[in-house]
Amino acid sequence: MSFFKVDQLSINFGGIKAVDGVSFDVDKGSVFTIIGPNGAGKTTIFNLVSRIYEPSGGRLVFEGNDITHVPPHRVAKLGIARTFQNIELFEHASLLQNLLLARHAHKQSSFFSELLFLPSVRRMEVEHREAVEKVIDFLDLQQYRESLIVNLPYGVRKVTELARALCTNPKLLLLDEPSSGLNVEETEDMAFWIQDIKNLLGITVLMVEHDMKLVSAVSDRVLALNYGRPLAQGSPQEVQSHPEVVRAYLGG
Ligand SMILES: Nc1ncnc2c1ncn2[C@@H]1O[C@H](COP(=O)(O)OP(=O)(O)OP(=O)(O)O)[C@@H](O)[C@H]1O
């Protein structure tokens, strides 16, 4: 059984086939990356997997369960988390508050037990704190924990966005262009974080990325798309040297 299966996925916007019969399998514990020129359909696939968009055809199967039509909040509860290309944090809250909010949104207790602050709620509160502190330690964010997001350098915000997704204890982590806006050194650091997330936390990663150095450093498998259609699939080296991929990137 495949860990995460995308089968003949399609969506049309008006006359545009943004994603047109795309299939791939993501193995548990691997990093799978989708590449392709601008407008190829990469972000649309992420929005289909996160269930923000409704597909016009095809299936999404996660751990053997068909999730093609489940609502977005259920996807998160099943263990799928994502980061956004344009960081989605509360800018005027601290890093710690952002991570606690992510935990609370993910694992809510009932209104009445919260009102009465029952022992179960206290226990859960301790669990939230411990989980968040673990992520802060893991991503080396201790020195920024009380800082407001608005005051943090862009590179640290990007790692905080990663931390926010990790706080929900995902089994599958979707990373939308983790290197966008980062300089060379920060991109190298991001590659280390992604490898640690896979190797030390055992989390499976599905990623959209433009930076080929990062793609080669971290990916087990790569899918290249163009105009919503698959061009090639294989190891990073196989896909990068595939003639169709070279042609698509050179615009030939
Ligand atoms: N909500 C939408 N409404 C209409 N068209 C859309 C919508 N979302 C995406 N598209 C179209 O679908 C196609 C694929 O877009 P998508 O954003 O998925 O590409 P991408 O590969 O992520 O590109 P980039 O690398 O520039 O982010 C494009 O032609 C885009 O204009």
TrEMBL record:
One of its GO terms (molecular function) is ATP binding. One of its GO terms (cellular component) is plasma membrane. Keywords: ATP-binding, Nucleotide-binding, Transport. InterPro entries: AAA+_ATPase, ABC_AA/LPS_Transport, ABC_transporter-like_ATP-bd, BCA_ABC_TP_C, P-loop_NTPase. It comes from the Bacteria. SUPFAM superfamilies: P-loop containing nucleoside triphosphate hydrolases. CDD domains: ABC_Mj1267_LivG_branched. This is ABC transporter ATP-binding protein. The lineage of its organism: Bacteria, Pseudomonadati, Pseudomonadota, Alphaproteobacteria, Hyphomicrobiales.
